[in-house]
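Much of the work behind modern protein science is quiet bookkeeping, done one molecule at a time. The fold becomes a row of whole numbers, each drawn from a learned catalogue of backbone shapes. The protein below has been through that process, and both of its lines are reproduced in full.
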Amino acid sequence: MRKIIVAIDGYSSCGKSTVAKQLAQYAGYTYVDTGAMYRAVALAVSRAGVAGDEKQIIALLPQIKISFIQTSNGQHVCLNGEDVESHIRTIEIGNMASQVAVIGEVRHFLVNQQQELGEAKGIVMDGRDIGTVVFPNAELKLFLTARPEVRAQRRLLELQEKGEHPVYEDVLHDVNDRDYRDTHRAESPLRQAQDAIVVDNSNMTKEEQMLQIQRLFDDCINRQ
């Protein structure tokens, strides 16, 4: 059976990574978490103490090597050989990731790596510009969305499960800030590809959403 590329884009805290992982498992495909790649760059920037200095961030890129490993807890991202999965999932690094993502050189650096990963097809990749920039010819493009208030509540619960104690209003503010940065950046802004299928999961359970996406995938495969 011919393999395809599945591009999943959408707003923060829409569950893109969860959907992408589950679909990859369902299809027997490789999952690539591009958001984790930007977070890894943000972590490198934070550790180097060059946040806010675009020239120094660009100069740092050749020293950054990002890879993925499979663990008993799923796929983890590595920064220069170090498993940094637990370090990149904080609000601070998430916000910094959306800040470094507006730098054209950072995006080019990572897009090249992402396109190399997709050369053999059979991948599910999620992010902000997968269907518009990284793989504009992807056979299946999905655009996930949900109301900001719903996404903030989901993010709040996720952080609480990790032992953090965020305030809902602060999380909602962060969600809205990230939406604005993602959609207004000059380089590869978040937008829905013309041929993307929109999935609004505001009122869906995870099971309902997954069933819908599996059907969309199966329909696409059957058309190939």
Notes: The longest strand covers residues 5-10. The two ends are 9 Å apart (CA to CA).
